[in-house]
UniProtKB/TrEMBL annotation:
Domain of life, source organism: Eukaryota
Tagged with keyword Transferase: yes
Keywords for the protein's UniProt record, in alphabetical order: Kinase, Transferase
Species per Swiss-Prot/TrEMBL record: Castor canadensis (American beaver)
Name of the featured protein: MAPK/MAK/MRK overlapping kinase isoform X7
Amino acid sequence: MMTGRRQPLSEKKIMHYMYQLCKSLDHMHRNGIFHRDVKPENILIKQDILKLGDFGSCCSVYSKQPYTEYISTRWYRAPECLLTDGFYTYKMDLWSAGCVFYEIASLQPLFPGANELDQISKIHDVIGTPAQKTLTKFKQSRAMSFDFPFKKGSGIPLLTANLSPQCLSLLHAMVAYDPDERIAAHQALQHPYFQEQRAAELQVLASHRRTLLPEHPMALEPLSHNWHASKESRKQKQPLRQEEDAKRLGPACLMQLPKLRLSGVTRLSSCSSPTLRSVLGSGTNGRVPVLRPLKCVGPNKKTDPQKDIKPNLKQCRLPTIARKGGGY
């Protein structure tokens, strides 16, 4: 992308590439991973499609600090990686992306330090020394103390004079010294600088939806009309079903059984049957005798079933059987 190039890319092309880079970082950070080595050598571009490669230095955002101190290429290393004992977060990827942003636009590195001390000096020459509260955060996680002389900073070099103010605004937000004040990837995607890219992305999504969905979908009929139509069709089908059932079963199914007529009082006219007469007993005059309730016997009272039962049978004795030889 930049090897052998003498003229910088157009701002529209830069916007297109940086939007894809921020989307790749946002995707990684949302899935709990940060890259830790974002630089031009790890960015792959083919047919205007940008991909971020080389995930050998990736780390989980949920891992316990401190992380590895010597990480990322020096020119793209964030201040918290240089001034702390490995206490940095995923915001270091945004610092590196900001350095890549400037390098794509100007074809020159933003902070080309020869060593770690020179790297800090190059950062202070452009951005200036940080506020005291920011240095206090870094001192809490560093065994050695450091104090820098106050330096105002020259600001982003004028090599980017051909860029729009919105582009410079996003660049300054990505290389903020304090990581807590640095912009995140999902916030960078909503920056006004990417307004044109977001609109183009929405148009592409809308075109994909039109290809998947029919252009002229069938108009749906009202539900009330369908309900009334189905109700009328059921009424028409009911007599047809009854006629078909009658033809299939024959004339026997159309006959109705006579209704039973029950009288309120049952009275016996005669007791002609000797069995019934013996059961009812004498003196009933053909009427059903009145049933009397049984008397309940307590648990302490014992009843003798042989006293209650008085059989009219005569007692008979069976003859004895003579046994032969003890057998039966």
